[in-house]
Amino acid sequence: MTTTPTGGVPWASRVLRIALVSTLVGVLGVTLVSPLLPSIASAVGVGDEQASLIITVYTLPGIVLSPVAGALADRYGRRPVLVGSLTLYSLCGLAVAAVTTFDAILLLRAGQGVAASGVFSLSVTLLGDTFEGVERAAALGANAAAISIGAAVYPLLGGVLGARSWQTPFLCYAVGLPVALWALRRLDDPPATTRENGLAYLRNSVGTLPRRTAATVFAASFTAYVLLFGGVLTAVPFLLADSFDQPPLAIGVVLSAAALSTAAVALSGGRLATRLAPAQLVAAGYCAYGVGLLTVWLAPGPLVVTLGTLAVGAGQGAVLPAIDGLVSGMARARYRAGVFGLRTSVVSLGATVGPVGFAAAGSRVGYRPALLVGGSVALVAGVVALWRTA
Q1: Over 60: is that where the pLDDT of 1 sits?
Q2: CATH ID of 14-389, from 3.40.50.1240, 1.10.10.60, 3.40.50.300, 1.20.1250.20
Q3: What CA–CA distances, in Å, run from 193 to 16, 78, 345?
Q4: Residue 253: exposed, middle, or buried by beta-carbon count in 10 A (0-12, 13-18, 19+)?
Q5: Is 293 in contact with 371 (CB distance < 8 Å)?
Q6: pTM of the predicted model, to two decimals?
Q7: What is the gyration radius of the CA atoms in the chain, in angstroms?
């Protein structure tokens, strides 16, 4: 392990570089494919609702299998699970470009989702294993920034390549194979941390966590993804289109700006950690969520909507690295990969529930009331948490 009080990102670390590139590969899973859904639907002869399953079957495996990937990493080592996950992820993605039936696409995307649960869990686990203190916060912030940068850039990449054919963007998944080889050859793998199996591992890994703290951290993580995927990625596009008649390009610019806002704050995670405790960063981030969502609720036009989404993005940049730091700190080293797998499962659930919840509320009472409720809950939670951690 390494530590430094500066709060700067430890770019020289090979582990950090492998983790960041692995994360960037994993983020391709949704953001690259989303712009392709209409083209795929037309090519294989399915409706929009069926086409959305291409995303759903990718995200669902993470809810169940992320803890399994973590348990395997604790038992057999980080390197084999990461390398295997990257390899399966890339091969399934590449194979989509070669099939022509909708069922085959869904099957391969589900395989990608299984592999992605290992990629995301192991990336943050490696950083938790390698760094401590503010350097850990800086490394986790860089990882969160990588996710946000991918979320901002990859949809544009998918759209550009998709203009040639819907299959072409899937060739990008080949990039995971050299990353897997790099990890295989250059990633040091310490001895496995546990030999426990099945229910014994699950019982002991969960049993070592401080119950109240763990419940609070996982609830905060779940809610953060509900607000991001439901409030920003679902409600904001519909609000911009329905209330302000904004075209898809303008909506994409707003969402990309929010993602870059997240990246900018996340890259400052180490420096922020020298001034505020992780729990305070989470509380401040929730205040930003609340202010941002309430700004969107009140927005008279697209510019104010953009300002609100920038505030939510900034809050996300504070919350996500801080939560990962809290998870790493409360998990014992022998169970860290499994605990991070549980964290990935929780955020996958939030990312799945959020769009459904906000869309259901939007269809019944409108998106502005849904944003009002979400923003109010976030702001109250943030203020109370700041008061308690002051």
Answers
A1: no
A2: 1.20.1250.20
A3: 20, 10, 21
A4: middle
A5: yes
A6: 0.86
A7: 20
